Amino acid sequence: MKRLLSVAAVAFVLAGGAVTAMAVPASAACTDRVCVYERTGGGGTAAGFTTADNNFSNNRFVDGTNVNDRISSMSCTTTRRPIFYTDSYWRGQGQRVFCDGRPENAVWDNQFSSFYYAID
Ligand SMILES: [Ca+2]
Q1: Where are the domains of the chain?
Q2: Which of 17, 43, 113, 114 is the most exposed place for a label (fewest CB within 10 A)?
């Protein structure tokens, strides 16, 4: 179900005009609509998502290291805001991310293990 950076070019094209009107992403390593970063402020290695994910244990950053419990910031350019959870299967503490394209630091640093989209 997960797709890490596999359709980055397609996602960028599909995002089209909306992306051009937004701030330039802090990291060129991720062009997917939901991105996570190893460091705060969009720093360090990155990973991208094109769909929700119930368990980060099988997800890798661009540098090959594991995503689970290592996320320090997130960004998104979706209309449905993702909520990151400290446990798999959308359990534990949740953080709803603003989707203005700019990295937002994790409230629970190095603890996120899944994410889903909020329904407005
Ligand atoms: Ca996963």
Answers
A1: 8-117
A2: 17
Residues 44-57: tens digit of each pLDDT: 999 999 999 999 99
* Architecture of the domain made up of 8-117: Sandwich (2.60)
Task: Give ion ligand 1 contacts, CB < 5 A.
Answer: 2, 53, 55, 58-59
Q: Ligand 1 centroid to 21 CA: how many Å?
A: 30
Tell me the per-residue pLDDT of 71-108, one tens digit each, with 9 for 90 and over.
999 999 998 999 999 999 999 999 999 999 999 999 99
Who contacts 20 (Cβ-Cβ below 8 Å, separation ≥6)? none
Q: What is the mean pLDDT of the chain?
A: 84
Query: What is the reported pTM?
Result: 0.76
